[in-house]
Amino acid sequence: MDVQADAPLVADAAAPAATGQVPAAAEVAEIRDRILEKLKHSVSKSVGSATPHDWFIATALSVRDKIVESWLTSIDTAKKTGRKRVYYLSLEFLIGRLLIDALTNMELIDQTRAALAELGVDLEALREVEPDAALGNGGLGRLAACFMESMATLSIAAYGYGIRYDHGLFRQRIKDGRQLEYPEDWLSYGNPWEFQRPELVYGVGFSGHIETQTLPDGELKQVWMPGETVQALAYDTPIAGWRGAHINTLRLWAARAADPLRLDKFNSGDHVGALMDQVRAESISKVLYPGDTSPAGQELRLRQEYFFASASLQDLVRRHMSLFGDIKTLADKAAIQLNDTHPAIAVAELMHILVDRYDIPWNKSWAITKATFSYTNHTLLPEALETWPVPLMERLLPRHMQIIYLINALHLEKVGKGPDASGARLAALSLIDESHGRRVRMGHLAFLGSHKVNGVSALHSDLMKTTVFRDLESVEPGKITNKTNGITFRRWLKEANPSLTSLLTEVVGDTLLDDATILEKVAPYADDSAFTERYAAIRRANKVALSALVRDRIGVKLDPDALFDVHIKRIHEYKRQILNILETVAIFEEIRAQSFREWIPRVKIFAGKAAASYTTAKLIIQLANDVGKVVNSDPTVRGLLKVVFLPNYNVSLAERIIPAADLSEQISTAGMEASGTGNMKFALNGALTIGTLDGANVEILEKVGAPNIFIFGLTADQVEAKRTQGISGQEAIARSQRLSEALESIASGVFSPEQPDRYRPLVDALTYNDFFLVTADFDSYYNTQRDVFKRWRDKKSWWRSAVINTSNMGWFSSDRTITEYAQEIWNVPTTPPGRN
């Protein structure tokens, strides 16, 4: 985080506008006095000496006080009523900046803006001072953040559990077109939103051995004697729901050594060795997704996952016992949701707690476990369904490996009695994969240990039944259900695009953010020229702001009247940024060769991070930057095409880009994107989607209608059929002169003259081993982009489609998604906002 102590307290050009509401003078004065009190007594600064960061801390603490008042009430109410709680376990929580989010949901934003203005401070400038908490990688962590906000909005008593990473996901810098990774130091200046809970410390064991004890009744009991214990320290962040009616807790765990200093070693002169235990323990919560290409990296990943799962289960079991006193009622009072396979070890951990600590018989413990857990699957990629080497599990978690073996034995014994219990079928159903050395299938463990398993879009849930969980679905039919993802409109409409929010609420009322389905009432305005002109003007203003940000950050000047074609997401081969780049190269060559044509000015905007060890993805980032360098400096293009890659993509940057996007790129290989939520955010803000029939694109198509979305490419069934025929791209390349020439330009060094062979590996992969079928979809994508151009020329038609997109996004609210979870999986009541 870069904080300039003497930075001016003025908003930059990309800041959103005020809502225009006039707050009451008395309330403004109260907030002003609260901020001044915090500045003096908590920050210890005077008005004259305060830096922008000081003002941010004082403002954050003042709104935090208001949140705490409701937070304590929410906690007390849940205790008194004995309500069932939801526990959301996720390795990622991509919460982003919280100041504007908190002010918005507490309905204090206009009052606080006015109060700060009286003090000569601009709220939007403070917004830029706050670090962006990088506690997630992409959609998984952002979904968890949206779900936490919606659970609070719907007054569901809930805790989010995760890890308080010291550095989170790396900070991305681009040098000579290449991604460089640096530690993300979001905690360098402290975190005003969190509360450390020093009284909540849990020991998390690793390694050691198992002792067998004989009980008085002759039964044998397994007792795990850990060889190492790491302490988990709790840090709580309050998560405010809409209108502040209910506040939930995000509890993140930090790892510390039980004995941080070996005093004997220190006094003997081994000052470094004296701290080794501390370094080893604290590495658990040091970095999100440490590299796992080495055995040490794999071990650290597993230590992270068990650490947070164990601490979370110990915490929720402690709470349950203090409130209800009977561990056997756990499933009646607690619903635990596993967000992807990362927390799957929690299934074995709960069995360990029930069987070993509370002496609950195995069968009863298994029934409690299955009734308590539910599991969300987020991917059909086999490599993303985690597996762990059995030797590593046996060494690091010996008792849990023993439990997993017993779960597996009883499971296979049961299914082995079926008529089709062949060796191959039992091998597919086993928790232990023996095809390449014995490995524990964590997805299988999460599936068996849960009473419900859900996908995150209709297509994804259907494919789960026929691909990764085909065999398990046949054993437990009906277990897989669908819960299409959603987004919180408070963040992705009101905060990200306040001008559009004002326009929408003007025509449909200010209860829009209570009930997103009210957006349907906007649809008739798609044919109202006065409305669409205002809608288009808001988009242009957002594009002007984004253009200023781009110029400031990377020095490229953009035309706000150009078509802003946006592709922002994690860099991965299946997300096919390379397909977009190939079309860019093809158009670049055509503009140069056919300058007489009437070209539409277009800006290609890329952003996203590649995993540090993902060589191909990092090469794609370099290619995007190299293409941009050549295209943007070519005088024959005359500014008709610009290519920009914005570094260090995060929530805050997404909030700037999405409201300015005209075209949303959702072009993953069909059948490989579980859902996507960026597609929903773009469509909500009026961008038209170009995409495959993949993930939630299918449902967006159903909602907005075919004339208002650009669909291309192979379907999921066609992708599967194509792969069975072979994945060489040679035939597609031979059939398409544009594709062939674009690949040749890249392979021959047109965009990397200093290293002509730099991109030969990418081109060879597409030519001979095109698993993600980029070449097969290229012509369809290229032609569909021409349809985009035709629509863009017809501005009336374009803006009509944009309004139709916005008006049909209400169903994609995370409030709807969470209501479905509550009713159909968790069995907890909900209270819609405005009825608390």
Automatic annotation (TrEMBL):
Its EC number is 2.4.1.1. It is an enzyme of class 2 (transferase). The keyword Glycosyltransferase applies. It comes from the Bacteria. Gene3D superfamilies: Glycogen Phosphorylase B (3.40.50.2000). It holds the Pfam family Phosphorylase. The modification N6-(pyridoxal phosphate)lysine is found at residue 681. The keyword Glycosyltransferase applies. Keywords: Allosteric enzyme, Carbohydrate metabolism, Glycosyltransferase, Pyridoxal phosphate, Transferase. Its cofactor is pyridoxal 5'-phosphate. It catalyses: [(1->4)-alpha-D-glucosyl](n) + phosphate = [(1->4)-alpha-D-glucosyl](n-1) + alpha-D-glucose 1-phosphate. One of its GO terms (biological process) is glycogen catabolic process. GO terms for cellular component: cytoplasm. InterPro entries: Glycg_phsphrylas, Glyco_trans_35, Pyridoxal_P_attach_site. GO terms for molecular function: glycogen phosphorylase activity; pyridoxal phosphate binding. PANTHER family: GLYCOGEN PHOSPHORYLASE, GLYCOGEN PHOSPHORYLASE, LIVER FORM. Phosphorylase is an important allosteric enzyme in carbohydrate metabolism. Enzymes from different sources differ in their regulatory mechanisms and in their natural substrates. However, all known phosphorylases share catalytic and structural properties. Allosteric enzyme that catalyzes the rate-limiting step in glycogen catabolism, the phosphorolytic cleavage of glycogen to produce glucose-1-phosphate, and plays a central role in maintaining cellular and organismal glucose homeostasis. Belongs to the glycogen phosphorylase family. This is Alpha-1,4 glucan phosphorylase. It comes from Methylocella silvestris (strain DSM 15510 / CIP 108128 / LMG 27833 / NCIMB 13906 / BL2).
